[in-house]
Amino acid sequence: MSLEELGLTADEDAVYQALVRLPAARRAEVADAAALPDHRADDALRLLVDRGLAALTADGERYAASPPAVALGAELAAQRERLLRAELTVTRLVEAYRTVDVDRAERDLVEIVHGTAAIRRRHLQLQLSARSTIDILSAGDPRAVAPDDSQEVTAIGRSVRVRAVVDRTFLTEPGAQDQVAQSVEGGVEVRVVDRVPCKLILVDGETAMLPLRCHGEDVDPTVVLRDGLAQVAAVLFEQVWTQGRPYLDPHPAIDVLDTHILRLLLAGLTDSAVAGQLGMSVRTVQRRLQALMARAQVTTRLQLGWHAKHHSWV
Asked: How many domains does the structure of the chain reveal?
């Protein structure tokens, strides 16, 4: 637990937390308890006294923590007040921005974003601004926005519902299986379709971001749609989501590696391509498939695919 969010430095945080756990203590005792050099503990004590978070005892040689409910309660109240003022300022700026001229109002509805860095930044801003939902259509090789740029799990931590639809070709990309599995583990609801019409992120059903050219590989330039125009993107997402098949955690009845093999085969990869994706020999892939066919009591791969789908193996 850290008090740095309330404006304390790391040293002040360590010293105050040490004081709370000690009776009135001398400088050296505080420094030992906070695991700080004497000069840093002295500086922190002086600053805590200035802020009313600590006080010297009557003998002038020992320090005691001020009651947290009183001392930190004031800090919390001040923090809330600063945040409220900031929110009011942002609200006023938004209103001023919207009312400057007609051209700007139009730009509010449709914004064109150029350049990989700008697209990545706007994508991140959208994810972090989500209040209730983030809906994603993902297709092909990530270009402007890589998996490391995602803030989906952060959003889920704020009780934002995140849904994603991926197409089968995406599952053939190197590392895609692991990325999707990590997303599912983090709380993202994932479905798979044969083909996603275009890449898309839709936030709170109000703001959508998608490539200007939906059917190309490039994502630059990208268009951001708001308000009524974003509703079109929302309808598109819901249609694709409804058609999708849930991408579930590996079925407990079969091995995780077998799950990956089946998913890649159903995505249309050859035995050789599957082996390359999973770092194993073609013979190993074929041997595991034969074992799965025996387990499913089928004689062809077509029958195995049917069995896998209808028994939730993939």
From this structure: 3
User: Tell me, what CATH number does 11's domain have?
Assistant: 1.10.10.10
Distance (Å, whole) CA 262 – CA 139? 20
**Taking Cα atoms as reference points, which of 58, 80, 54 lies closest to residue 67?**
54
Give me the helix-helix angle, 38-50 and 10-20, nearest 10°. Answer: 80
Residue 170 near residue 247 (C-beta atoms within 8 A): no
Residue 21, number of CB atoms within 10 A of its CB: 9
The predicted model scores a pTM of: 0.55
Report the C-alpha gap between 188 and 279 in whole angstroms.
27
Please write the tens of the pLDDT for every residue from 281-311: 889 988 988 988 888 888 888 888 888 777 7
d(CA 25, CA 298): 76
Sheet containing strand 25-26, strands side by side = 25-26, 62-65, 54-56
Q: Which domain holds residue 288?
A: 256-310
